[in-house]
């Protein structure tokens, strides 16, 4: 067992050196790339800009993160090739494949391929302590709730969740940093976050004021699990200084995506940079604790990019079937 693990680790190291040292034919590689992220103040922007910079540095290319409207827009940008890479959650990915992405209704966005697993997106609610809101049931009728950027995972699913739980609200959209400022100024009653934890905007709020991070009750969690494509999740108490115990939540998996027509060796090299050294990814964002090869099987929606599938099958003991690989 130890020998197998050592050999697998050695394979990953050698693969990384080959890509970094230029021992791969790069004639069809782009010289620059962009990664579709989301709004500033959210996890997508911090995480996506971080791995974009890491890949650019390691592979000697020009690349970086781009502010977008989040998962739905990223599916559209990557499908059309306007962005080489992006990040999405499984719900918006499924809707985009089915032609129900509100950005382009009727268009099946099947040119966006899975590249690597990122992390789970918990759904959580934050209010100012001064509001007296300590539970979902406490949210007053007609409350102004910020759901993040229009078309984001949060904006797509959290309003439906709130309606399912019987909350009456006025919907507000905007970047996470902007919504955090509105909450602090009393212009919002609640922010409904769907983002990898810790959410930068929540961490910033904790420093500036007293907040309540509101968990779902067992009954609320069960109702959401029954109705939406999410999984059970607990936000660890160590995530925020405000939390004194783990907070009951639900989550949806995130995957990075690549335009399906990008060169196989290029995408394989990008995956190698991100997946071969988790410590570097953790230095970018704590949510990257889940950005590990073993989570390749969390994608049951998107076709895999051939370069990504090759990396996981050869280096991570994955068994991605040919009928789940684009062009296979």
From TrEMBL:
NCBIfam families: TRAP_TAXI (TIGR02122). Pfam families: NMT1_3. The keyword Signal applies. Gene3D superfamilies: Periplasmic binding protein-like II. SUPFAM superfamilies: Periplasmic binding protein-like II. Keywords: Signal. Residues 1-20 form the signal peptide. InterPro entries: TRAP_TAXI. It comes from the Bacteria. This is TRAP transporter solute receptor, TAXI family. The keyword Transcription does not apply.
